[in-house]
Amino acid sequence: MQQSHESAGSELAPRGRGGAMRVLVVDDDPTVAEVVSGYLDRAGYDVDRAGDGPSALVRAAAHRPDLVVLDLMLPGMDGLEVCRRIRARGPVPVIMLTARGDEGDRILGLEVGADDYVTKPFSPRELVLRVESVLRRSRPATAAQPVHGAGITLDPAARRATKNGTELSLTLREFDLLAFLLRNHGRAYSREELMSEVWGWDFGDLSTVTVHVRRLRGKVEDDPARPQLIQTVWGVGYRFDATPFEETV
After folding, report:
1. Is 245 left (phi over 0), alpha (psi -120 to 50) or beta?
2. DSSP state at residue 243
3. Burial 139-174 (b: 16+ CB within 10 A, else e)
4. Cα–Cα distance between 219 and 170 in angstroms, integer?
């Protein structure tokens, strides 16, 4: 299980139903859904529940969640399709739950836009930490200034990214990864360093970083098969190259 730098019950956790952030929990196992919902409720979140894919889409459309905890294996419509449809409506953070340890399942979840995943069985307390971490990074960074380079402009306050004037459709983690690499252009980072700096985890499944780099290249590179911006540094990790580079303004 990956570890987060944050601790449960931190000052980030919303307090009070009036201003609480809404989390939609989607799982066909009533016991899992009840336990997860109980922990999130005690952490101060406004929790909604759904037991299958169609119900989840209806609830998400009726009351837009701030984050979705989504089981991969659902009856009728699996979690991958639910994630695709929810992501098509807007940039809602998604944490995928999978009952299998197969790497292919985890990668599929990341490929369709999930921001994180947790493998069952899991600690509900750890899931709360993940929710807090993802929501913390999804909040606009009002103090951060836009950054520019290689035709790319990132506005952290608006969570908006463009390349040559065309808006990029980035997930939460893709945005954070691009922002970090762009601000630290020219320096190579290992996958472990990126996981720590961007995800806030001390250790974990490094394929998470690999998948996000691949997805990001598909959105910012002219030819993802021959990347010019996000370079692989063999034996080290990745480096963002931007020439010429425009400093933050």
Report:
1. beta
2. S
3. eeeeeeeebbbbebbbbbeebebebeeeebebbbbb
4. 8
Query: For the segment 25-58, what is each residue's pLDDT rounded down to a tens digit?
Result: 999 999 999 999 999 999 999 999 999 999 999 9
pLDDT digits (tens, 9 = 90+) for 119-156: 888 888 889 988 988 887 776 555 568 888 889 999 98
Rounded-to-integer distance, Cα 201 and Cα 108, Å: 21
Tell me, yes or no, if the pTM score tops 0.70: no
CB atoms within 10 A of CB 181: 27
The span from the CA of 150 to the CA of 168, in Å, is 14
Q: Describe the strand order of the beta sheet including 160-163 as a list of residue ranges.
A: 147-149, 152-155, 160-163, 166-167
d(CA 227, CA 220): 9
